[in-house]
Specification:
heterodimer, A: about 290 residues, alpha+beta, Uridine Diphospho-n-acetylenolpyruvylglucosamine Reductase, domain 2, Uridine Diphospho-n-acetylenolpyruvylglucosamine Reductase, domain 3, Enolase-like, domain 1, 3 domains, four-stranded antiparallel β-sheet, globular, B: about 170 residues, Ubiquitin-like (UB roll), DNA polymerase, domain 1, 2 domains, five-stranded mixed β-sheet, 5 helices, 5 strands, elongated
Amino acid sequence: MLLFDYHRPTTVAETAALMAELGEDAELLAGGTSLMNLARLGLAEPAHVIALADVGELGGLDATPDGGLQLGATTTIRHVETSPLVRGRAPGLAEACGHVATVRIRNQATVGGSLVHADPNQDLPPMLMVHDALARITGPNGDRSVPVAELFLGFFETVVQPEEILHSIVVPPPARGFRAGYLKFLPRTKDDYSTVAVAVGLTAEEGRVTAARIAVAGGGSTPLRCTAAERALVGTIPGEATALAEAAALVREALDPISDARGSSGYKREMARVCTTRLLRRLGTEDAG
Amino acid sequence: MASATPRPVRDAIQVTVNGQARSLRTPPARPLLDVLRDDLELTGTKEGCSVGVCGACSILVDGRLMSACLVPVGMVAGREVTTVEGLAGPDGELSRVQRAFLECSGFQCGICTPGQVVAATALLAENPSPTADEVREYMTGNLCRCTGYYSIVRAVLSAAGTSATGDAAKEPA
């Protein structure tokens, strides 16, 4: 165990060549927080590991000219959390990053790693979904762009194919009047995965919701958007009690969580309703940033 | 066609540990924690949970706090690793944080202490005068099974030169 060959390519092209040559025997290594644990437990036994740390073009955190953000796949979660650029352009994303595990893990874990690992309890996916973020995936046939909301297929499974690399995440510029928030329900310890967590993005103009996004972690085999609840909010007054209660009930109906040590399926659905209610109430009293 | 793919790393791994250049001939996949303890005999870094949760193996890589159990040693090639053994001055005089842990009795059984001291050092490098809440937030990932948290928070605030009275002495809300 843990005696894999270790490769250090410096470009995406070199990485792709290694992946083509080594095939299924190889795993990509970004921050290591998931792969090292899986390898130690014998759940991953790669003969080869391709470390991405030296592939400069997969890193970085940049402003896009249109007012959005580009997050490199190997950018650490701590970098996103503490970046003044992110705090200015997508404060909800910085907020969600601050809820990931501990500072020590956030210093190591990466944006791309947390997405392709596809644990349905991860904190970044729901927040990226409410921002309509896109995953740029590069492969032998060029690049493709997939909404983060369509990235996940099931437990630990994404649409990223074995010969492909998640290159970066593009967060479009938020609409005028957009605000986002995150509520992570943690009945055990602060560094735990959530029992459920809810991300909400609201756009309001002249006192009415013009667009809504609600996405949940821990509510099923993938993080997911609750589109029926989103639709129920459009046209309502932000924070208005009847509307938010209706939307929150629709969130509960949209989920199918597994029962596990963090709560039964029914408990998680009910707590998702409660978290949605509280978050919508909070965002209803906040001005757009 | 000639193979354009680089070969796996088989050379010795060059890394600076506590200011000393080291050349490590070891599989790059090994956890840095094992290399520090077994090869370099730097046993101040402790093994607790081995899955990145407990903080006993907290170290600094280029000044950033990480879990030595989750870092393959290949990842630190060309980088600077600091363990608890590297915090004291050249003549062995304790660092500000180490002195504060002594003065405030910021330890009980001691197993988590190296990790707590390293984490506190990282915190104060980023934020030289944290509040008690900021100390708790930053050091959430460093568990003390003796539950000696109040004196740990007091030690960190004392090292920062912040008064250890007031909210530090109170239970968290």
